[in-house]
Amino acid sequence: MSQNLPEVWLRGPLPAVPPLLQPVAHALLQAREEVAKIMADFPAARLAERPLGLASVGFHLRHLAGVLDRTFTYARGAALSETQLTYLATEGQPPTHPGAAQELVQLFNEQVDKALAQLEVTPETSLPEWRGVGRAQLPSTVIGLLVHAAEHTTRHVGQLLVTVRLVMNYQ
Q1: Which domains does the chain show, CATH number per domain?
Q2: Tell me, what's the pLDDT at 171?
Q3: What interhelical angle do 57-75 and 142-169 show, nearest 10?
């Protein structure tokens, strides 16, 4: 992200995204830019560190990708696959091999791309439709899931920022 660019939401509408879903798309794109900046020089060997007992940097990166995948799956009206359930069960076990940090950033980027593609084909008329969440089929709507995905993503990006600073500055 260039230092001279305003935040994503101030750069104008995304032509392919329906108007009511612009805030969701803007939030996801902003999160992607911030994650890239935060993680630019983060050492993979430190992905599993838990300063002050906080969730690790690796957890936040894995969770960012996983929660987008899951919430957008529910928004489509689908159930989670075994692969998604396995991923969920292992989010707290980040890899630490060389290159792992950038692999996790790339996984998040790919998930943002998938989410944007889904937003582009989501009819605004479907936004109030009921969607069940999880095995208990807790009640939500398409718009509820999409907004939650954006909000949850931005919350974890903030937590990621703090955790990265703790790991890097307080050894």
Answers
A1: 16-169 (1.20.120.450)
A2: 63
A3: 170
